[in-house]
Amino acid sequence: MCGIFGYIGKRKALSIIFKGLKKLEYRGYDSAGIAVLLDHKIHIKKSVGNIDALADKFNNTKDNSIISKATLGIGHTRWATHGNVTVNNAHPHVDYKKNFSIVHNGAIDNYNELKHDMQQNEYKFYSQTDSEVIVNLINQYYNGDFFYSVQQTLLHINGSYAIGVLCKQDNNKIICARKDSPLIIGIGNEENFLASDISALLPYTNKMIFLENGDIAELYVNNVILKKLNGQQKTLNICDISNNINNISSNKKKYKHFMLKEIYEQQYTIKQTYEKLLDTHDSILQICYNIKKIYILACGTAYYAGLVSKFWFEQFTNIPTEVNIASEFIYSNAIINQNTLIIVISQSGETADTLSALRFIKRKKCTSIAVCNTFKSNISLEATYVMYTYCGLEIGVASTKAFTGQLIALFIFALNLGLRRKQLTDIQHKEYLKELLQIADKVKIILGNTINIKKIARIFARKKSVLYLGRYINYPIALEGALKLKEIAYIHAEGCATGEIKHGTLALIDRTIPVIVIATNGITYKKTLLNIEEIKARNGFVIALQNETNNVLIKRIGFTIYVPETIELLSPILNVVPLQLIAYYTATFLKHNVDQPRNLAKSVTVE
Ligand code: M6R
Question: Do residues 49 and 77 lie in contact, with contact meaning Cβ atoms separated by under 8 Å?
């Protein structure tokens, strides 16, 4: 939530900051702003709306030509937490004396108390944000030493932050710091950058410093000084990240939206992920050998990946597995000990609910594994082990390729653990892998035929509600299909276990409400056919996902979407793809901003 970017160098800062913010826009897009420092004066422009709206504002201002000369500045793209979406609440913020300017990603817990105290001392506030308190506190501690004033401020605030700060008096540096919100420094040639993620830095440099919690840094044109919050200097650990990024680019290419590009990329990201993860690291298998219980913790789509994988862990390893919504787990009385394995799943590696669940269990001294798509993110750093999914940056707010990447990682891990624990034979292990290795090509087949999918999406675009049904390992896929439709098409959708609807939801069925039923082959097939009959008997409009070998359904239902056949255990990875496409096309027919759905943001860094 929220993206921050900063530049100091010899080039004109404004256009570089604009480009950086454009890359970070997926993190929040309700308002944006830029501050530059020129001749000991801070110039700020902010606007409601996305980065394009901000650019229009700049283009229409008189001082544009002056501001564009600046060679250092900071920018922000916002997802509102404290205070609604207004220009006043947009960042950068300044203190009431206009000495400092700040961009902030995070949430300050004790801002009300601090604000109250400062208001007793003539301080004035013009926004409802917590961030304005930080910048005023910096001003309050200022004694001529910029670093000292930021350091003191950070020692007095509680909560999470990634900040970039400008000081009017000290126009040769930017100070930045982080705790629990991501911040990366990009090292250039006679220029340095700061950004919330790698993608915004990659156009300029591969040399990056991943700030750790409690780090505070001074960025100069030719130098970076890194310290701990207590002032102790740290050596710069500069990573060349060329080896850690994969060839999945963060440009839209020929696609209209990132989401569509990411759906189509699955034919490669699935392959890339299994190629990298086929051999689970021996130390991970070793430490999991004596595990007696697995808890999987995640949110949203990642949680559904966990629900699917429960069946894999239980079948392949014989370890009882429980899947929990991360934000709820912290209230549970789960018994966790050294024989418990915790798996956290997160695309971004930043999700506050998941991070907080991970921290909650870390106190109990069990082993944790993060399945994560973001290199050096909080969650990947704090878990005992990390398994990266190799999907490349996911920009569309609706998660697609990260989901199938998570499924691949979890399937392989469960399989390898099952072999190690001798619950699977070599032959069984090989058979499953053989099926897995065909999945990417089967995804490609689904992507090659979207005629029916588009027809269905046209119908959905006129509907108020849709039901998604699935049984057993495809029940989580019904949940995921419904989430996708809600998230980007803003149509009410409900995912149900197919066998459960006769216990209540069946009352909703009539001609007007489409029902998508996952009816691919497997142990649930016959029962699912029966359930379809029950819906038809009540004039329900059924759309079925099925395999071509079972075309018995074709004549008797509204629409059929064919998916290639695989073993039932792997069918979720294929079945989810048409559901992603249905949500995508429904949203585009409704002319929604698919990549930036209303009210949402890509990384949810507040609890
Ligand atoms: O980054 P994470 O995987 O931790 O994110 C978890 C959820 O916020 C995320 O999956 C969300 O549900 C997606 N926007 C759904 O498409």
Answer: no
Same domain membership, residue 150 and residue 11: yes
Instruction: Read off the pLDDT of each residue in 516-520 and give the average, rounded to a whole number.
Output: 97
Q: Is residue 525 part of a domain?
A: yes
Check if 348 has its Cβ closer than 6 Å to any atom of ligand 1: yes
pLDDT for the residue numbered 283: 87
State the CATH number of the domain containing residue 208: 3.60.20.10
Model confidence, pTM: 0.91
Domain assignment present for 603? no
Report helix, strand or coil for 303.
Answer: helix
DSSP collapsed to 3 states, 396-424: CCCCCHHHHHHHHHHHHHHHHHHHHCCCC
Question: Which tokens hold the place of 158?
Answer: 């509680």
Please compute Rg for the chain using Cα positions: 26
pLDDT of 19:
96
Q: Could you tell me the CA-to-CA distances from 9 to 167, 221, 351 in Å, in that order?
A: 16, 5, 33
Q: Are residues 258 and 211 in the same domain?
A: no
> Which CATH number characterizes residue 261's domain?
3.40.50.10490
Q: Which of 197, 218, 243 is the last residue of a domain?
A: 243
- Look at residue 553 and tell me whether its pLDDT is greater than 80: no
pLDDT (tens digit, 9 = 90+) per residue, 199-221?
899 999 999 999 999 999 999 99
Q: Ligand 1 centre from 450 Cα, in Å?
A: 25
By percentage, how much of the chain surpasses pLDDT 90?
85
Ligand 1, atom 7: closest residue by C-alpha: 300
604 lines ligand 1 (CB under 6 A): yes
For every residue of 14-66, DSSP letters joined together read HHHHHHHHHHHGGG--SEEEEEEEETTEEEEEEEES-HHHHHHHHHT-TTHHH
- Whole-angstrom Cα distance, residue 420 to residue 418? 5
